[in-house]
Amino acid sequence: MRASAPSAARFLAARTRIVHIDGYNVDFKPEGWMIVTRHTDKPGIIGSVGTLLGTRGVNIAGMYVGRAEKQGRAVMALSLDESAPEDVMGEIAAMEGMESARLVTL
Fold first, then answer.
1. Residues 77, 49: contact at Cβ < 8 Å?
2. Where are the domains of the chain?
């Protein structure tokens, strides 16, 4: 599994944003717990991740998706209100079309 390469931009002193991950455009504030995925852009993947997190009591605070083209490769960053359990991360990583899923703390 290769490492992701995020790019950050600072617009004002306290407003740092992540604006690219692996060349895909995203735009989010780097803070707290986040799930970052690389996956195939196809119907159902984002919904499956959200449904799994919801049924396991993990609240999504924000979602950011970037893709190069329809049904190609995509990245998703989910801001969470709390950490996702290890077994949930394993279920996400095992989903069809999912290339990688990582829990990060910023």
1. no
2. 32-105
